[in-house]
Amino acid sequence: MSNPAEKPEVVQLPAEPISAPSASSRRAASQRVREARDKLTSTSGTRPAFDAELLRQYAQTRLSASYVVLLLVVATGVLFGLWMQPIPAAAWTAGMICLHGAMIRSCRRFLAEPASPAATRTWRTRFVVLDLLYGLCWMAILIHPVLDMVTESLMMFLMLLVIAVSSMLAANLPIAALAATAPVAVAMALSFAMSGSLDNYILAGLALAAEGYFVLLAHRLHSSTFATLEARAEKDALIGELEQAKAISDEARHRAESANVAKSRFLAQMSHELRTPLNAILGFSEVMKSEIFGAHAVPVYKEYSADIHNSGVHLLNLINEILDLSRIEAGRYELNEEAVSLVGIVADCHHLMKLRASSRGITIHEVFEHAMPRLWADERAIRQVVLNLLSNSIKFTPQGGEIWLKAGWTASGGQYLSVKDSGPGIPEDEIPVVLASFGQGSNSIKSAEQGAGLGLPIAKNLIDLHGGTFTLKSKLRIGTEVIVTFPPERVMSALAPLSEDAPPLQPESAMVPDEKRRPRHKPIMSAGTGS
């Protein structure tokens, strides 16, 4: 009997985490898709919006230089009228003026119409045809047989002038610039080459070289304009994205704030609703625990009553913390400010927590600066801050540990409070967690005395209401220190004496008339004189 085939072992490779594309990669991908779509719908290989903008700049350039072109045409017609018959020169001048008028009229109509892809293609073809006719008219006058008497240098100068002007005017539309200059340059090159002399061959080459140079210059100008338009479009797109992101962020922030306020109001309302039955539970459980109306038939009931009372006290403290936090977050916590002694409050809290610390073998040291002035603060809030910090230190400090309570002056003239323990410490990445509402670190989860995670957030918010700072420093296996500072504006220092003289008890204006009314008597004899 043959053995069954062994089943091959399949090893599953760990799946690589799929990273979400970043905002820059998404923007680049969308830009590539947009460019590909625009190239398919464009006649020049660019975006349709750029085609319309380039045509608009072309038309504006034509309109702004219309008088210059008209002056060039009239001056050329008058000059050529002196070298050949006036009638052909006048006819050429009239035809050029009509062609120039048609060009100006077309530019104005294009600028007046709304832009659309179909209209852009039509006007582009129309402008190319008009520029081609423009170049053919210049070619006709420059290669006229009657102008053989004109020197080649003058003809070369006129050709360069016509090509330069046409290239600059049609730089935003390279195909139109080529249509306006190529007939003139090619015709002049052929005219020079057909003469047969070496000088004319050189002029023919210079004519073609000049045509290539101005075509290249027009292309560079077009590329520069296109890059400017592209940069402006990119800037507008980025501004639009930023505004959209800002609007989305503001809307999300408003929703989060509304939800937070609604949560705080709900917690405050529920806390008030829970206090009424909880007070009844505490009262009756205390009566049963104290056996006011008689001893229990079963002694275990007394222990159960004590457990019920202790659980109710814990729940009441938790409700009070939730209520305080919700009032702080909702902005409805009002400080009852008065002159308080920071050292006195810390000493009282130490006295309250001393028995609990002693039961765990924890030693609390006090390091206070004496003769410190009072603070203008809320005594209940400061007391709650000190009790929260001290109870946390006692909770997480192991047996036989030490806690240091410090109070003194800050460098800026304010006052500070420091609570430092020798506990296990808090990892650096968990510090923001423990400072958040209902946040608990890993040590708190492992501890037998778990809390609700509201002590530190409430203390931090109460210090923020006083305009102070709340700093938490911790190192693993070394300990944790919380430093609370109060600004100098809350320190009630003794006022310095006034440098100015005190005002008179009676105004001088009221004293002067009395002196004037007082009669002055001349003494009869001066003491110590012989007069």
UniProtKB/TrEMBL annotation:
InterPro entries: HATPase_C_sf (IPR036890), HATPase_dom (IPR003594), His_kinase_dom (IPR005467), HisK_dim/P_dom (IPR003661), HisK_dim/P_sf (IPR036097), Sensor_HK_Regulatory (IPR050736), Sig_transdc_His_kin-like_C (IPR004358)
Protein's UniProt keywords contain Transferase: yes
Phosphoprotein is among the record's keywords: yes
Catalytic activity field: ATP + protein L-histidine = ADP + protein N-phospho-L-histidine
Name assigned to this protein: histidine kinase
Transmembrane region(s): 65-83, 89-107, 127-147, 153-170
Pfam families per UniProt: HATPase_c, HisKA
